[in-house]
Amino acid sequence: MSTPVRTAPPVSATAADPDAAVVALDGVGKTFANGTAALADVQLEVAPGELVSFVGPSGCGKSTVFRLIAGLADPTRGTVSVMGTSPQRARRDGSVAYVFQDPTLLPWASVRDNVALPLRLRGDGRRERAAAADRALELVGLDGHERDLPRQLSGGMRMRVSIARALVSRPRLLLMDEPFGALDEITRQALQGELLRIWRQADDMTVLFVTHNVFEAVYLSTRIAVMAPRPGRIAAALTVAEPYPREAAFRTSPQFSAAVAEVGAALHASALPAGASAPATEADRVQ
Ligand SMILES: Nc1ncnc2c1ncn2[C@@H]1O[C@H](COP(=O)(O)OP(=O)(O)OP(=O)(O)O)[C@@H](O)[C@H]1O
Protein backbone atom coordinates (compact mmCIF):
# COMPACT_ATOMS: atom_id res chain seq x y z
CA MET A 1 0.00 0.00 0.00
CA SER A 2 1.40 3.39 -0.88
CA THR A 3 1.89 5.84 1.92
CA PRO A 4 -0.70 8.65 1.89
CA VAL A 5 1.85 11.28 2.84
CA ARG A 6 4.61 12.29 0.57
CA THR A 7 7.35 14.78 1.20
CA ALA A 8 6.70 17.72 -1.05
CA PRO A 9 9.43 19.69 -2.73
CA PRO A 10 10.26 22.92 -0.86
CA VAL A 11 6.96 24.55 -0.01
CA SER A 12 7.76 27.44 -2.31
CA ALA A 13 7.89 25.13 -5.31
CA THR A 14 4.39 23.71 -4.97
CA ALA A 15 2.19 26.56 -6.15
CA ALA A 16 1.88 26.38 -9.94
CA ASP A 17 2.02 30.13 -10.46
CA PRO A 18 3.72 32.21 -7.75
CA ASP A 19 1.73 35.28 -8.82
CA ALA A 20 -1.49 33.40 -8.15
CA ALA A 21 -0.48 32.36 -4.62
CA VAL A 22 -2.94 33.37 -1.92
CA VAL A 23 -0.11 33.65 0.57
CA ALA A 24 3.58 34.01 -0.27
CA LEU A 25 6.38 34.37 2.27
CA ASP A 26 9.81 34.88 0.77
CA GLY A 27 12.90 34.66 2.97
CA VAL A 28 10.92 35.83 5.98
CA GLY A 29 12.62 36.44 9.30
CA LYS A 30 11.28 37.97 12.47
CA THR A 31 13.49 39.04 15.35
CA PHE A 32 11.80 40.77 18.26
CA ALA A 33 13.17 43.87 19.97
CA ASN A 34 14.43 41.72 22.86
CA GLY A 35 16.61 39.74 20.43
CA THR A 36 14.39 36.64 20.15
CA ALA A 37 14.75 35.25 16.63
CA ALA A 38 11.21 33.90 16.23
CA LEU A 39 11.51 33.08 12.51
CA ALA A 40 14.36 32.70 10.02
CA ASP A 41 14.19 32.31 6.25
CA VAL A 42 10.64 31.06 5.96
CA GLN A 43 9.57 30.20 2.41
CA LEU A 44 5.90 29.48 1.86
CA GLU A 45 3.52 29.62 -1.04
CA VAL A 46 -0.09 28.59 -0.67
CA ALA A 47 -2.30 28.11 -3.72
CA PRO A 48 -6.01 29.03 -3.82
CA GLY A 49 -8.26 26.44 -2.22
CA GLU A 50 -5.58 24.72 -0.13
CA LEU A 51 -6.02 23.77 3.52
CA VAL A 52 -2.56 23.93 5.06
CA SER A 53 -1.90 23.05 8.71
CA PHE A 54 1.08 24.23 10.73
CA VAL A 55 2.34 21.86 13.42
CA GLY A 56 5.35 22.19 15.66
CA PRO A 57 6.43 22.49 19.27
CA SER A 58 5.46 25.41 21.44
CA GLY A 59 7.47 28.50 20.58
CA CYS A 60 8.44 27.47 17.02
CA GLY A 61 6.77 30.55 15.57
CA LYS A 62 3.37 29.33 14.34
CA SER A 63 1.47 32.29 15.78
CA THR A 64 4.17 34.67 14.58
CA VAL A 65 3.73 33.40 10.99
CA PHE A 66 -0.02 33.99 11.36
CA ARG A 67 0.47 37.48 12.78
CA LEU A 68 2.64 38.37 9.78
CA ILE A 69 0.08 36.99 7.31
CA ALA A 70 -2.69 38.83 9.16
CA GLY A 71 -0.74 42.07 8.92
CA LEU A 72 -0.60 42.43 12.72
CA ALA A 73 3.22 42.53 12.64
CA ASP A 74 5.92 43.16 10.05
CA PRO A 75 8.83 40.87 9.20
CA THR A 76 12.35 42.04 9.96
CA ARG A 77 13.59 40.28 6.80
CA GLY A 78 11.97 39.17 3.56
CA THR A 79 8.49 39.83 2.21
CA VAL A 80 4.96 38.67 2.98
CA SER A 81 2.23 39.02 0.40
CA VAL A 82 -1.43 38.07 0.62
CA MET A 83 -3.40 37.82 -2.60
CA GLY A 84 -0.71 39.75 -4.39
CA THR A 85 -0.82 42.71 -2.03
CA SER A 86 0.34 43.63 1.46
CA PRO A 87 -1.23 41.76 4.39
CA GLN A 88 -2.51 45.07 5.78
CA ARG A 89 -4.29 45.90 2.54
CA ALA A 90 -5.78 42.39 2.19
CA ARG A 91 -7.11 42.75 5.74
CA ARG A 92 -8.64 46.16 5.00
CA ASP A 93 -10.30 44.70 1.87
CA GLY A 94 -12.07 42.14 4.07
CA SER A 95 -10.47 39.23 2.18
CA VAL A 96 -8.99 37.70 5.34
CA ALA A 97 -10.78 36.42 8.43
CA TYR A 98 -9.55 34.81 11.67
CA VAL A 99 -10.71 32.27 14.19
CA PHE A 100 -8.81 31.91 17.46
CA GLN A 101 -8.94 29.36 20.26
CA ASP A 102 -11.00 31.77 22.36
CA PRO A 103 -14.22 32.61 20.50
CA THR A 104 -14.22 36.17 22.05
CA LEU A 105 -17.95 36.80 21.63
CA LEU A 106 -19.70 39.91 22.97
CA PRO A 107 -21.55 38.50 26.00
CA TRP A 108 -24.41 41.00 25.86
CA ALA A 109 -25.10 40.64 22.12
CA SER A 110 -27.22 37.93 20.49
CA VAL A 111 -25.66 35.20 18.38
CA ARG A 112 -26.93 36.96 15.25
CA ASP A 113 -25.46 40.33 16.30
CA ASN A 114 -22.13 38.70 17.16
CA VAL A 115 -21.94 37.09 13.73
CA ALA A 116 -23.00 40.31 11.99
CA LEU A 117 -20.36 42.39 13.79
CA PRO A 118 -17.79 42.48 10.93
CA LEU A 119 -20.53 43.68 8.56
CA ARG A 120 -21.65 46.33 11.03
CA LEU A 121 -18.08 47.58 11.34
CA ARG A 122 -17.87 47.95 7.58
CA GLY A 123 -21.18 49.83 7.47
CA ASP A 124 -23.58 47.31 5.90
CA GLY A 125 -27.31 47.94 6.46
CA ARG A 126 -29.32 46.21 9.21
CA ARG A 127 -31.40 43.94 6.98
CA GLU A 128 -28.41 42.94 4.88
CA ARG A 129 -26.42 42.13 8.03
CA ALA A 130 -29.15 39.99 9.53
CA ALA A 131 -29.65 38.04 6.29
CA ALA A 132 -25.90 37.38 5.89
CA ALA A 133 -25.54 36.42 9.57
CA ASP A 134 -28.45 33.98 9.33
CA ARG A 135 -26.92 32.40 6.22
CA ALA A 136 -23.58 31.97 8.02
CA LEU A 137 -25.33 30.50 11.07
CA GLU A 138 -27.14 28.02 8.87
CA LEU A 139 -23.79 27.03 7.35
CA VAL A 140 -22.41 26.12 10.78
CA GLY A 141 -25.61 24.35 11.86
CA LEU A 142 -26.81 27.00 14.32
CA ASP A 143 -30.07 28.05 12.71
CA GLY A 144 -32.67 28.43 15.44
CA HIS A 145 -30.12 30.00 17.83
CA GLU A 146 -30.03 33.49 16.27
CA ARG A 147 -31.50 35.19 19.35
CA ASP A 148 -29.56 33.23 21.99
CA LEU A 149 -26.89 34.89 24.09
CA PRO A 150 -23.38 33.35 24.13
CA ARG A 151 -23.80 32.18 27.76
CA GLN A 152 -26.70 29.96 26.66
CA LEU A 153 -24.40 28.00 24.33
CA SER A 154 -21.94 25.14 24.85
CA GLY A 155 -18.22 25.61 24.08
CA GLY A 156 -18.63 23.86 20.72
CA MET A 157 -21.59 26.06 19.80
CA ARG A 158 -19.67 29.20 20.75
CA MET A 159 -16.87 28.07 18.44
CA ARG A 160 -19.43 27.59 15.65
CA VAL A 161 -20.55 31.19 16.23
CA SER A 162 -16.94 32.33 15.98
CA ILE A 163 -16.56 30.43 12.68
CA ALA A 164 -19.82 31.90 11.37
CA ARG A 165 -18.56 35.39 12.26
CA ALA A 166 -15.39 34.71 10.27
CA LEU A 167 -17.35 33.37 7.28
CA VAL A 168 -19.97 36.14 7.19
CA SER A 169 -17.82 38.44 5.06
CA ARG A 170 -17.03 35.58 2.63
CA PRO A 171 -13.25 35.71 3.09
CA ARG A 172 -10.90 34.24 0.53
CA LEU A 173 -8.41 33.39 3.25
CA LEU A 174 -9.37 31.99 6.66
CA LEU A 175 -6.70 31.90 9.38
CA MET A 176 -7.49 29.51 12.24
CA ASP A 177 -5.12 29.52 15.23
CA GLU A 178 -5.79 26.39 17.34
CA PRO A 179 -9.55 26.89 17.03
CA PHE A 180 -10.52 23.52 18.47
CA GLY A 181 -7.78 23.25 21.12
CA ALA A 182 -10.11 23.87 24.08
CA LEU A 183 -12.87 21.48 22.99
CA ASP A 184 -13.53 17.89 24.01
CA GLU A 185 -12.54 15.20 21.50
CA ILE A 186 -16.06 14.41 20.26
CA THR A 187 -16.91 18.07 19.67
CA ARG A 188 -13.52 18.59 18.12
CA GLN A 189 -14.02 15.80 15.60
CA ALA A 190 -17.52 17.03 14.78
CA LEU A 191 -16.19 20.52 14.09
CA GLN A 192 -13.34 19.15 11.97
CA GLY A 193 -15.96 17.47 9.78
CA GLU A 194 -17.97 20.70 9.66
CA LEU A 195 -14.90 22.70 8.70
CA LEU A 196 -14.15 20.37 5.80
CA ARG A 197 -17.74 20.59 4.60
CA ILE A 198 -17.74 24.39 4.77
CA TRP A 199 -14.32 24.66 3.13
CA ARG A 200 -15.39 22.38 0.27
CA GLN A 201 -18.61 24.35 -0.25
CA ALA A 202 -16.89 27.74 -0.30
CA ASP A 203 -15.58 28.59 -3.69
CA ASP A 204 -11.78 28.37 -3.54
CA MET A 205 -11.52 29.55 0.07
CA THR A 206 -8.02 28.93 1.42
CA VAL A 207 -7.59 27.86 5.05
CA LEU A 208 -4.42 28.06 7.16
CA PHE A 209 -4.76 26.14 10.41
CA VAL A 210 -2.47 25.99 13.46
CA THR A 211 -2.72 22.91 15.64
CA HIS A 212 -0.65 20.91 18.13
CA ASN A 213 -2.62 17.84 17.17
CA VAL A 214 -1.08 15.68 14.45
CA PHE A 215 -4.31 13.64 14.05
CA GLU A 216 -6.26 16.82 13.40
CA ALA A 217 -3.66 18.05 10.90
CA VAL A 218 -3.73 14.77 8.94
CA TYR A 219 -7.52 14.53 8.91
CA LEU A 220 -8.00 18.08 7.64
CA SER A 221 -5.11 19.10 5.45
CA THR A 222 -4.04 19.11 1.86
CA ARG A 223 -0.55 19.92 3.16
CA ILE A 224 1.16 20.06 6.52
CA ALA A 225 3.98 22.47 7.29
CA VAL A 226 6.13 20.98 10.07
CA MET A 227 7.85 23.80 11.94
CA ALA A 228 11.04 23.62 13.98
CA PRO A 229 12.16 26.01 16.74
CA ARG A 230 15.14 28.26 17.50
CA PRO A 231 14.84 29.97 15.13
CA GLY A 232 11.39 29.09 13.85
CA ARG A 233 11.37 27.67 10.34
CA ILE A 234 9.46 25.27 8.11
CA ALA A 235 11.44 22.06 8.42
CA ALA A 236 9.27 19.89 6.17
CA ALA A 237 6.20 20.15 3.98
CA LEU A 238 4.11 17.02 3.66
CA THR A 239 1.23 16.45 1.26
CA VAL A 240 -1.68 14.34 2.49
CA ALA A 241 -2.78 12.52 -0.63
CA GLU A 242 -6.11 11.20 0.71
CA PRO A 243 -8.94 12.54 -1.50
CA TYR A 244 -11.93 14.53 -0.21
CA PRO A 245 -14.55 14.10 1.06
CA ARG A 246 -12.75 12.45 3.96
CA GLU A 247 -15.16 10.20 5.76
CA ALA A 248 -14.92 9.45 9.50
CA ALA A 249 -13.57 6.00 8.50
CA PHE A 250 -10.39 7.70 7.26
CA ARG A 251 -9.45 8.25 10.92
CA THR A 252 -9.19 4.53 11.56
CA SER A 253 -7.62 3.54 8.24
CA PRO A 254 -4.05 2.25 7.80
CA GLN A 255 -3.45 5.25 5.52
CA PHE A 256 -4.30 7.59 8.36
CA SER A 257 -1.96 5.81 10.79
CA ALA A 258 0.84 5.88 8.24
CA ALA A 259 0.33 9.60 7.66
CA VAL A 260 0.32 10.34 11.39
CA ALA A 261 3.53 8.32 11.80
CA GLU A 262 5.17 10.22 8.98
CA VAL A 263 4.27 13.64 10.38
CA GLY A 264 5.42 12.44 13.82
CA ALA A 265 8.77 11.40 12.36
CA ALA A 266 9.16 14.78 10.63
CA LEU A 267 8.39 16.54 13.92
CA HIS A 268 10.90 14.38 15.72
CA ALA A 269 13.59 14.98 13.10
CA SER A 270 12.93 18.73 13.14
CA ALA A 271 13.51 18.83 16.91
CA LEU A 272 17.06 17.44 16.53
CA PRO A 273 20.01 19.85 16.41
CA ALA A 274 21.09 20.72 12.86
CA GLY A 275 23.34 18.00 11.41
CA ALA A 276 22.18 15.24 13.78
CA SER A 277 20.48 12.28 12.19
CA ALA A 278 17.19 10.87 13.41
CA PRO A 279 17.19 7.47 15.13
CA ALA A 280 16.27 4.57 12.87
CA THR A 281 12.54 4.08 12.46
CA GLU A 282 10.81 0.71 12.81
CA ALA A 283 10.65 0.59 9.00
CA ASP A 284 14.43 1.17 8.75
CA ARG A 285 15.10 -1.65 11.19
CA VAL A 286 13.05 -4.28 9.37
CA GLN A 287 14.58 -3.61 5.97
N1 LIG B 1 6.19 40.12 21.24
C1 LIG B 1 7.19 39.26 21.45
N2 LIG B 1 8.36 39.68 21.97
C2 LIG B 1 9.40 38.82 22.17
N3 LIG B 1 9.36 37.51 21.87
C3 LIG B 1 8.21 37.04 21.35
C4 LIG B 1 7.07 37.86 21.12
N4 LIG B 1 6.08 37.11 20.58
C5 LIG B 1 6.57 35.86 20.50
N5 LIG B 1 7.85 35.81 20.95
C6 LIG B 1 8.73 34.63 20.97
O1 LIG B 1 8.83 34.16 19.63
C7 LIG B 1 8.87 32.74 19.60
C8 LIG B 1 7.73 32.22 18.74
O2 LIG B 1 6.50 32.48 19.40
P1 LIG B 1 5.09 32.02 18.81
O3 LIG B 1 4.03 32.49 19.75
O4 LIG B 1 4.98 32.44 17.39
O5 LIG B 1 5.23 30.43 18.88
P2 LIG B 1 4.10 29.32 18.69
O6 LIG B 1 4.71 28.25 17.85
O7 LIG B 1 2.85 29.93 18.19
O8 LIG B 1 3.91 28.81 20.18
P3 LIG B 1 2.62 28.13 20.87
O9 LIG B 1 2.42 26.82 20.16
O10 LIG B 1 3.05 27.96 22.29
O11 LIG B 1 1.46 29.07 20.70
C9 LIG B 1 8.81 32.28 21.05
O12 LIG B 1 10.13 32.09 21.50
C10 LIG B 1 8.17 33.46 21.76
O13 LIG B 1 8.60 33.52 23.10
UniProtKB/TrEMBL annotation:
<protein>
    <submittedName>
        <fullName>Nitrate/sulfonate/bicarbonate ABC transporter ATP-binding protein</fullName>
    </submittedName>
</protein>
<feature type="domain" description="ABC transporter">
    <location>
        <begin position="23"/>
        <end position="256"/>
    </location>
</feature>
<dbReference type="InterPro" id="IPR050166">
    <property type="entry name" value="ABC_transporter_ATP-bind"/>
</dbReference>
<dbReference type="InterPro" id="IPR017871">
    <property type="entry name" value="ABC_transporter-like_CS"/>
</dbReference>
<keyword id="KW-0067">ATP-binding</keyword>
<keyword id="KW-0813">Transport</keyword>
<keyword id="KW-0547">Nucleotide-binding</keyword>
<dbReference type="GO" id="GO:0016887">
    <property type="term" value="F:ATP hydrolysis activity"/>
</dbReference>
<dbReference type="Pfam" id="PF00005">
    <property type="entry name" value="ABC_tran"/>
</dbReference>
<dbReference type="InterPro" id="IPR027417">
    <property type="entry name" value="P-loop_NTPase"/>
</dbReference>
<dbReference type="InterPro" id="IPR003439">
    <property type="entry name" value="ABC_transporter-like_ATP-bd"/>
</dbReference>
<dbReference type="InterPro" id="IPR003593">
    <property type="entry name" value="AAA+_ATPase"/>
</dbReference>
<dbReference type="GO" id="GO:0005524">
    <property type="term" value="F:ATP binding"/>
</dbReference>
